[in-house]
Amino acid sequence: MLETTNKKCWKWGPFIFGGVAGVVLLAAFLGELHFSASEKFCISCHEMEANVYMEYKETTHYLNKSGVRAICSDCHLSHNLVQKVGRKVKAANELLQHFRGTINTREKFVEKRLDLAEKVWAEMMANDSRECRSCHSAENMDYTKQSRRAMEQHIKGDDEKKTCIECHKGLAHRLPDMHAIDPSAVIGN
Amino acid sequence: MKRHTAKGLLVLIGLAAIAMPAQAEELKSLRGSRDLNVGSEPPEINRLIADDRPIPRNYVQQPPLIPHKTEGYRIDRNYNKCLSCHSWANYKQAKATKIPPTHFVNRDGKELANISAGRYFCTQCHVPQTDTRPLVENEFEPVKALK
Known about the structure:
The complex is a heterodimer.
Chain A: H1 2-35, H2 39-42, H3 46-56, H4 72-76, H5 81-100, H6 106-126, H7 130-133, H8 148-159, H9 164-167
Chain B: H1 2-25, H2 83-86, H3 91-94
């Protein structure tokens, strides 16, 4: 009797072990995805904490009348699992640059800022401001409830098939030197 | 009789002397009538007027008032958020008022190709409005030429 039980265990053992290991690994993977999308994780790097996070704290996505917040990952990480993992793979470069110290001082960051901002803008242009729209849905946005100026601009933007980031730059962080982008709105010639 | 009048007068003066400090206490500064060692009453929070029509000027050289909210509009050497609508390149698209040519002249009277540094910081002269009422009533009226 004992022998037969042992034999059965031997037969199903790998499956049970595999199942448990699978669940544990999946949980670890999802847990890591979740943790690495947290604000705590993002600002654990000095580059993020001292520059973009400090600026973000002055803006409406951090402090506003209703207390709803959008954290780093809400705007900079896709909410779709496959795209999220893809972005995590790309983040390997960010790790590399962190250890190389590419922007480890304010001066280096400011100098590199236009380049970095343009990359993020290009990404948002390409995906039609996907992360913005995961909260700000165009279908649910009642223009008639907006201020007159906002309403006019939003209707015009829709007609011209514009995407959020085309007008709403520098919303959650300060802008880089914009001479190259809009010289009419910057001091100097 | 005379004695009585004199006594009455004395009483009156005495009463007035007692009443005087009470009257002084009624004096109120803008801070309110609280003692100095007590926290002052918090002022009412005034809200920026979000979206108004252009506000008429009260005198000829008045910098036009800003008829909309400007919260979060940064002006620094990298960018001037106001000019993203009010610059010559952007005003048509934004349906905004464009900055006048006077803003392209520096303090020595030299004409510049872009906005003058002395005119770059818009909010030094142009201010948004809040829903507040005047602290003191007044009968100010705009000059006749602007009525």
